[in-house]
Amino acid sequence: MQVALLRWITDQETRATVGRLVHPGGSCFTLEDPWLWNRAGISCIPAGFYDLERDTFRGRYPNFRVERVVGRTAIELHVGNTVEDTRGCILLGAGLHFDPHPRLSDSRVAFDRFMEAMEGIDRAVLAIVDDHYRPELRG
Questions:
Q1: pLDDT category, 134, cuts 50, 70, 90?
Q2: Of 96, 14, 108, 6, the residue nearest 63 (C-alpha)
Q3: Which domain range does residue 109 map to?
Q4: Residue 107 — φ and ψ, nearest 5°?
Q5: Closest CA relative to residue 46, chosen from 126, 115, 102, 107
Q6: Tens digit of each residue's pLDDT (9 = 90 or more) over 84-98
Q7: Number of CB atoms found within 10 A of residue 90's CB
Q8: Among candidates 112, 137, 126, which has minimal Cα distance to 45?
Q9: Within a domain: residue 7?
Q10: Element containing residue 106 per DSSP (H, E)
Q11: Given this model, what pLDDT does residue 8 score?
Q12: What would the pLDDT profile of 55-111 be if each residue is shown by its tens digit?
């Protein structure tokens, strides 16, 4: 099983990285920290291939954790709306707005759809691609 994260905006001014996560049930928008040299808690992770493993987010609800990131731990896919919610993780959202900074909407809806699509799957491969020159991915 493979899940792909296609990043198409990285903006140091707004301190955000925006993309689209393509998974077995469809796709959703993502919001991450900007690239800050893979520093824990404040940077997105490098493009590449990683393991996704089923986990429990802060002991509260099922989610997926990104594994095998050099120098990093505790990177999760979870609910959140703004870059302040990321803490080095990947947020999922059904909608994307710029007001003027990137903001996700309906994060819980997107997250629940992702988890439903991953039902019965405990492990997958996450492929992250920095694809800043493909505007057709923005829809």
A1: very low
A2: 108
A3: 2-133
A4: -65, -45
A5: 126
A6: 999 999 999 999 998
A7: 24
A8: 126
A9: yes
A10: none
A11: 87
A12: 987 778 899 999 999 999 999 999 999 999 999 999 999 999 988 889 999 999 999
Please report whether residue 138 resides in a domain. no
Residue 136 has pLDDT above 70, yes or no: no
- Cα end-to-end span (Å), the chain: 24
Q: Is residue 139 part of a domain?
A: no
d(CA 5, CA 96): 15
Nearest to 31 by CA among 81, 101, 73, 94: 81
CA count, 13 A, side-chain hemisphere, 5: 31
How far apart are the C-alpha atoms of 45 and 91, rounded to whole Å?
Answer: 13
Cα separations (Å) of 59 from 27, 46, 81, 102, 115?
Answer: 26, 27, 20, 28, 16
What single DSSP character describes residue 85?
Answer: G
Q: Does 77 fall in a domain?
A: yes
For the chain, give the number of residues. Answer: 139
Our count of domains for the chain comes to: 1
pTM of the prediction? 0.91
